[in-house]
Amino acid sequence: PSYYITYGGQFENQQRANKRLSTVIPLSILAIFFILFFTFKSIPLALLILLNIPFAVTGGLIALFAVGEYISVPASVGFIALFGIAVLNGVVMIGYFKELLLQGKSVEECVLLGAKRRLRPVLMTACIAGLGLIPLLFSHSVGSEVQKPLAIVVLGGLVTSSALTLLLLPPMFMLIAKKIKIV
Fold first, then answer.
1. Residue 122 in contact with residue 158, Cβ under 8 Å?
2. How far apart are CA 53 and CA 78, in angstroms?
3. For residues 46 and 50, what is the distance between their CA atoms, to the nearest angstrom?
4. In this structure, what CATH number is given to the domain that contains residue 108?
5. What would the pLDDT profile of 41-94 be if each residue is shown by its tens digit?
6. Which parts of 41-106 fold into alpha helices (H)?
7. Residue 55 belongs to domain spanning
8. What is the value of pTM for the model shown?
9. Mind telling me which residue stretches traverse the membrane in this protein (predicted)?
10. Does residue 2 fall inside a structural domain?
11. Rounded to an integer, what distance in angstroms lies between the CA atom of residue 56 and that of residue 58?
12. Contact 78/149 with Cβ under 8 angstroms?
């Protein structure tokens, strides 16, 4: 008789989901890029905002590692949600810088004033998203093992992407705005 091994159940589902996500995640990032490009009509600004994504991913991965979780389908879904929040914070900041430039302010003035005036909206977005996930993080009810990795990824990524938005995005915008015409 011939014997063979087949992997099924959870493992098979995980493999199928990983294959699907390996297509969905790059397509999501590409779609975000095109939306940013058509919004700001600038490849450098779209790429500057997309720079939030690697920082968000780094924070999510560090958070997963810190609590001993693994990359799973729920964690991957958390990364996709995190991409949206990270990009939103970048859009809030860069959009305001661009608005101030249209009002005739200098690049330096735009960055200083814009960073100061957009501190609260960026922090509020991150805090509200984070607070909404706290119950998922500490839940021990049925299904919490699925929700917890998603919450961990988003919370960890919010910390790093918010820090980037507030600390690195303004000076990077200033460098770009001095080299190319933004408005």
1. no
2. 13
3. 6
4. 1.20.1640.10
5. 999 999 999 999 999 999 999 999 999 998 888 898 899 999 999 999 999 999
6. 43-50, 52-67, 73-102
7. 10-179
8. 0.85
9. 20-38, 45-67, 73-97, 118-138, 150-177
10. no
11. 5
12. yes
